Structures
1.
Amino acid sequence: MEKAVEIELSKIACRVRMGVVEGVYHAKSGHPGGSLSIADTLTYLYEKVMRVDPKNPQMPDRDRLVLSKGHCAPALYAILAEKGFFPKEELKKLRHTGAMLQGHPDMKGTPGVDMSTGSLGQGISAACGMALSAKRFHEPYRVYAILGDGEIQEGQVWEAAMFAAHYGLDNLIAVVDFNGLQIDGAVKDVMSPEPVTDKFEAFGWHVLTMDAHDFQDIERTFQKALSLTGKPVAIIQKSIKGKGVSFMENQVSWHGVAPSEQEYETAMKELKAALDQWEAKE
Amino acid sequence: MADVIKKATRESYGEALCELGEEYPNLVVLDADLAAATKTGMFKKKFPDRFFDCGIAEADMMGVAAGMAATGKLVFASSFAMFAAGRAFEIIRNSIGYPHLNVKIGATHAGISVGEDGATHQCCEDIALMRVIPGMTVINPADHYEAKAAVRAAAQLDGPVYLRLGRLAVPAFHDASYQFQLGKGELLTEGSDVSIVATGLMVGEALAAAELLKNQGISARVINLHTIKPLDEEILAAAARETGVIVTVEEHNIIGGMGGAVCEALAGICPVPVVRVGVNDRFGMSGPAKELLQVFGLCAENIVEKAKYALTLKK
């Protein structure tokens, strides 16, 4: 990846993170930690990989993204706003009564949202259905799903994993966001899903690993994933929960709470400083 | 009247899918390892490229159905009522109901007439579970012709539909000319003393009960309430107003089912006594279907008894 591209993506990712903090702060609730850990991946997918049209969100042949870890909607909303699917002002109304942006993604109410999710373990099945549709009806789109590391404790995920391999859904890429933390604590302490790589391999998937906060590695991994055929691809991304906001990083307490006014200002200041740094590199 | 045929509504479902598959190139069918029993196997044979077995994984199947519907497919997903409405309830609620996706749930083996398999497979809770999901249409056809027409109506409707189908072969009282009207109860016999509102397998028994009552000088109106949601409040209000008392009959728990829906509606628009005939808040058991229906009181004789009791409640 060229340096200029990396800088551009990094700037967008900073703005996505600011959108997350903005949304959760104004909502006075929500899930900042896991939203921040997927900000870079979503930025790369929407900027460099996925074929979508903000002016025509229902374009039949668009690539689909299913945010199976639906509670991290603030990150999805932030990148969709960044792409122009709806005004950024909407982010400040996240979770408000009557607002377009629901606490969890609502495909019927929000342009750019391809599947309603929120109840964990279900999005991956829907992604399989979309991928199967594309394959059997010769439709040219790909399907991306993003799952949480805690989410894969749901049995339905493994039903879907079996299904995707059985039907050879090589147009499906599932990203598992391995930030290591879930509500009740460390994933390894609550209910270890390890060895995750071996599990997906045993279920018949290609498995890649990725540093979720390094655009060079993100590009390498996705380009590799897009070249693989015959099986679905799982990307296990090593991420940092709360990435980008110093006091939220690797803190389980930031799974599902909103920042106070002071914390909000500190977070926004940090993210703005990071954005300025990238701009200085241009 | 054409020759009376005797067929299980699951059989009618399989036949209808085969016909609709010709007409709708985007129609796909999913099953969870029960294609031989749900009769989706008939579709599989005819359209192997549009049939997908999901294995014994009903939760995933409902999610896959949602995903396929989200890309514009007309999806029929089948299993036994117990595992479709029961096991996969929350997936139906969140992945299909909430986004109002075009998924038709063909749930066979509903009620205790499953027979020998016993309580674990006899779903008497599905109407309750499905009708509380906003936007879900719930249909419980009574015979072969109605089932075929209902499957077609479901295909024509944009949105989620729960089709409640049976394992047991039942005689048809409709014929090929029957015009099914989604959301409209069917007035089968006029009557002025009592109204019997039945659904599914029980409609035939209700008709038999009305005959028996007639012999005893009691004029019973029989309504086939094939669509439980949306509910035909008009036909119910008229029945309540004109006969003053209602008996509901269903192969379902008396709590939360069609009888419950009728009570909810009438309480608001025309309160009259309602006597509910159904499974009395208990689990099923093994046995031949016909015997079980007798044991559980899901038969004409018990309907007659309950109708006579209902008459004593009339104001």
2.
Amino acid sequence: MEANKLPKGLIVDLVTPLTDTGVIDIEGLNALLARVLPQADGILLAGPQMGEGRGLDLQFKMELLEKASAFVQGKVPLFFWISEDSIEATKELLDHLKGILESTGYSGMVFWLDSPLVYHSNRGLYRYYQDLTAMTGRPFVLYNDAGLIKLVEKQLKRGNIRTNILKDLSRIEKIMALVFRGSLTRVNNYQKALNKRPDFKIYDGDEARFLEHPSMSGIVSMGANLAPRIWSTVTRASLGVLEEGERKPGYVSQIWEMGQFLKDLMDMYRRNPVWTVKKALSDLKIIKSPACTAVTEPFQEKESRLAEFIAKHHIE
Amino acid sequence: MKKGLSVIKQAREVLEIEAQGILNLIERIGTEFEQAVEMILGSKGRVIFTGMGKSGIVGRKIAATLNSTGTPSLFLHPADAIHGDLGMVTADDVVIAISNSGYTKEVTTIIPTLKGLGVKLIAFTGDPESPVARESDLLINVGVDREACPLGLAPTTSTTAALAMGDALAVVLINRRRFNSKDFKRFHPGGSLGDRLSVKIKEVMVTGEEIPLVCIGQTMEETLSEIDRKDLGASLVVDDGLVLQGVVTDGDIRRSLLQRRDIMGLQVEEVMSISPKTLDEEKTAADAVALMEYHGITVLPIVDKAKRVKGIVHLHGLLGGKEFRLNGS
């Protein structure tokens, strides 16, 4: 595997399996990884959406990286969300995670995924990243999601990385990609600003956007926890890299149907993705418990039928 | 109503994505593009495009553009290539392989044979690390960030980008070859616009009795009658020696009518525009069109060095709105 080569395709925004007592469900983690790994081009751990990264403490995150990397063994790149509530806490986490990789001698690819606006303003970001990227030899991927910033209690002025700031940040070689959730106009502006870095990838962080107008770098997918094979097929079709054998007559209508199916699936977990997906995975006996880091709301009827829906359609 | 709005929004999004796809190519044009141009100019053979599906269609179009602008070009279907059509390829040719993914099997299959023949290979692909890119002598990155079509079922932005890059190549080659209107006519023998515009004005201008003409001192009533009779929307105004003094157009008459109602009794020099734009009969029709378009006029007096009237041309006549006749034919 080439050093620091960003994957193109499906990155699974992995849920973090918990036991009812709040520790890592290691069996569940391994079972889930075993399910998604053959289809994934990358795995996102402790992500701010499905990975519940904002609710996991430092020790938990260290253990998560250790266990997951032991299972993955460098087969696909890992992305780990490192953003904490402050610069200091983020650097501390990064330092500890780096220590885990060093102590285990992990040789697979790991990209640090960071949402800087969670704990830092746009001002001074370039200097901050010069400092942060010097801390580790591993590359960084930015995560831009104004919706996430809204959840942060601090009254921050901006939810999005400013375009000219992103342009500056792209001068730092170790920052290699961006996961983006937001408007089409903004991502177009970002792409324009990144023109001098043709190797810089922009992954869609929004499944609906990807199914409508797919990014040629790929997708960070929540639904791939449930339907990794279908997500993989649709992603490869969207990127035009389906294998010869998969392009049988009528494959276009099959891909279309798969896309519609994924939209139906999204409708079932859209309201509350973490809880709904965990409940379905638990019902399917892949993870032990639907336990989440935050208090769960009662399920709506269609959400509680997600596992049944998946079993009925023999989804892998 | 909502449905209608959604349709418009979707359509706008598609155009926005495709436009962005082309704009992003601008920064990518660099030394490899220059090298590709030099490679084609230095080649003794033809430029052969190859590609499957929509990329193949794009290849056909670029080949057609190159053919009509002076660069011999053809399209080679990859599937036909492995069934004998590779025989049309010679070592002197340059092959341009179009594949957005860079993994198209039919294309990668023929590359070793093409390389074996000694042809130069240029890749038009979106993935610089793909097999097609790696095997090529030059890579033109036509990658796009996003397809406009749901699920990427049909290549949209990527084919638009490849097509635009092909146009960029064709235009640069035209300029490098100093392609002129004579060449354009040579490659468009079917009487197209190029044919029309490459001829000299003297071959197409209205001459003799057909020129709308009045002399200084004649009335506007007589002038209107002349304009009406000759049907060019204007009349030239000359002195006794046929030297051009001015032009009266429909527009001049309209403006005079707005200023005072009764213009029939006026003399033509009270209404005419003085110092009209003119051209020499040895210039081409293309020169005349350019001059008329630049100044926003539709008729152009053709005069000699002493400003004596030799003829007149009308924009529509040159562009095809009216019958286009070569004098003497």
